[in-house]
Design brief:
There is one protein chain. The chain is mainly beta and 883 residues long. It folds into 6 domains: 19-167, Sandwich (Immunoglobulin-like); 174-434 and 449-489, YVTN repeat-like/Quinoprotein amine dehydrogenase (Methylamine Dehydrogenase, Chain H, 7 Propeller); 494-591, Immunoglobulin-like (Sandwich); 597-694, Immunoglobulins (Immunoglobulin-like), CATH 2.60.40.10; 706-795, Immunoglobulin-like, CATH 2.60.40; 807-879, no CATH class. The protein is built from 3 helices and 73 strands. Strands 58, 60, 61, 63, 64 and 65 form a 6-stranded mixed β-sheet that branches. Strands 3-9-8-5-6 form a 5-stranded mixed β-sheet, with no helix packed on it. A 5-stranded antiparallel β-sheet has the order 31-32-33-34-38, with no helix packed on it. A hairpin with a 4-residue loop joins strand 63 (771-780) and strand 64. The two termini are 28 Å apart.
Length: 883
Amino acid sequence: MNKKILVIIVMMLAFMLSTPYVLSATQIKNYNSGDKIPIVENEKGYSTSDLPGDTRTDVTIQILPFNPPITISQYGGNYQYSIEALNNESTSVSFNIWTMYTLPNGSSYGPVFGPVDVQLPDKWSAYREDLSDYVTADMPGGNYTYIANVGIYPDTIWNSDSFTFNKLPSSGGWYLQNPGNDETLEGISFSDSENGWAVGYNTIIHTTDGGDTWSEQDDGIYYNQGYHAVDFINSQTGWVAGSLIIKTIDGGNTWTQQYDPSSYGINSIQFVDANNGWAVGGEIDTYNQIYNRVIIHTSDGGNTWSTQLYESGYYYYDYIEPLYDICMLDTSNGWAVGAYGAVFHTDDGGSNWIEQRLGEYSDLFGVTFIDLNNGFAVGEEGTMIYTTDGGNTWSNYTLGFYDNLNSIIFTDANNGWIAGGGYYPYHGTILHTNDGGSTWDFQDTGTGDFEYQLNDIDFVNNNMGWTAGSTWYPFEGVILHTENGGGSSVQPILSYTPTSIDFGDMYGSQSNTSTINIWNSGTGVLNYYFYPEAAKTWITIDPDEGFSSGETDILTVTIDTGGLQPGQYVNNITLISNAGTAIIPIYVTILQANPILSYSPHFYDFGEVPQYQLVTTNLSIWNSGTGVLYYWIDDSGTFCVVEPWSGHSDSGQVNNHTVMCFTSGLSPGPHQCNLTIYGPIGNTEIFTVYVYVTSTGFNNPPNDPYDPLPGNGTTKGETDPVLSVLVSDPDLEMMTVSFYDAADDSLIGTDLNVMSGTRAYTIWSDLSINSTYDWYAVAHDQEASVQSDTYSFTIGEQTNEIISMEMPLNIGFNLIGWYHGYNTTASSLYENISGCLSIVKWDPVAQDYWLYLPGFPAFDFVINPGMGLFVEVDEQSVWHGEG
């Protein structure tokens, strides 16, 4: 770490710990963050002599946008920026930070952010680098200036800084309103152009200014409620329905519970006057597969409710599921719709409900009638039906797309709207007719690729309308508003190229890619997806859904021929959009493969290699036939290791493998190992490795062990001390080091396979406090032994040292150190490191690396305290020092 940065961090922590009151009021907040400003020392190095001579307080501000220049789409969007205030004075200063807009017409708006109270010591700065502001779709198009001020809000500005951004003008008549809640909205109702309510799970929100601002209303019920529908007949009187029915007569300031359905839920409610109202719903009992549907009625404003229709039955046999919407033209005539395309009609206020339509049809979610004869119902996957004879007969209206249509409303005989949305990708849809439903056109929702769906829609006249829904995860409420009937119609056009893809000749177990370009050559927003069940397992499309406002989306088509037998294949991929459906055929021909295993060299002779050495060579393997060659190399039971030990090769593709030969444990003389390369059935080859291991000749005994731990004559603070000596051997041989109690020559412990130039370790357990102990070590190289001097130490008062650590390990090789006061092994360390592939240490005597690979005990080695190691991992993890 840079020393200057380290000093700054230390000073910062010291300051924050010693004087927390300076920062207690220093917070910068926005809608997505509210933590305290980080404080760092001013790196610009101002001193008192640097301050200007005027009398103005010398505090400056800097605001920097991310990724300029910034252009906000017509559908709105956000921009990010950082902000920093610097106190150049020689004393602590208190001040405000705030931001303002200069709008395209030259007027000022704000504050957008702040004012924030800040107190800074001299030569320190306050900064935030994660700030973000959202520009809504209804903001006028043009150039904006975003200005940051520092001073005393609002009139005294000491310093300011700014940047500009451009907002493209909106072409649609709908724009987002902020409902200010984090729950799904399922119903919306306006009594006039100013007063409206929206409801959802445990949520009732209210506006008195046409939706510019919304506030929550308390239903007075102290447990969660699922509200699905709302209906107001004026600005004071309304009903909300779901798991309960509640009523207000004071605009929602207070609510009274009127009805608890208990055995079912209410999906829609409608009042034609202050007394007469109807509600529909039902229950889905998935455990018993018993469902019901219900219609209830009140004639006294909801004080009492009576059941007009109740039916229950089995899901698979009776086509009975809940009703979802109701439309009453007056106190006598009405229609209700629901699951399986059910339509019920009454002409006597509900005394009798006649089934007009039922069967294996798509679910219907919304219904409306213009008069006693002409009506429409909408539902799942683009379903629309209509009638011109009061529902005696119904006809299908083909829209040509598959979005769910959730709500429909007409304001007169000609003008109507539908709200809904689709799942691939998650998007909202609004349709409009101005000819009584003969034709329907899309309206621009003004939201671009914002992911949400619309559940309900309401208009108070031909111009003023609102629709409510929710975003995709996390689920939050969404409200759109129009003041001009939704603006002009738009017509997206699905355009794409190529119209088919032919991957030509391929072999099994191969992959290849191509691309599909998709764009909207019309107006508005095109949303599209590839039907999930259409693609077979050997084709994937990424991404498989998207939006286009005219830009071209490039999708990657990947074909994987694994498992395909020789022959010709075609897959007709279905591309579905709100502008129609297209079929894109994908072709491939699978040829008979004949992979042939080839390799070079066929053998390798390392020649003379001393004991305890690691030598390597290269083995090349390729496919000299057709198709894909899969192979693996068996090096078990040999003194060689191959890395990697398996692979695959397309025709002509050469793969290189490293063959490592370890002479540790091999006696002097010639050695041979055969590595078996397994390819296709009947295609097996042998790669032979030769090595002649040489001895160092006349055996030199080890050098005397030295450099004892604990140091001679020292005092230790624990009763189980680690004993250690440094050992070496002129012939670089492995040694066995034994530790003895000098008092009676009894064995304390033994360290095996100790490399020359490293330390040997053991633990002397259960010693007594305030006692002195003598010991010595003996090093043996299998032929000769040498003894160290006798060393002594004293056990003093016991201390406990707690060592903890967290070391992040990145993919690849990482340098770590063994800090404990005892030995471990490479195999033990491997078991305690997630994703470990290998462990390597440097032998300073042999001037070479020692490699441990899992599964090869012969390559294990001892790790001594203080030793540095390279650890190879294939995943990011954290090592806590275990081993």
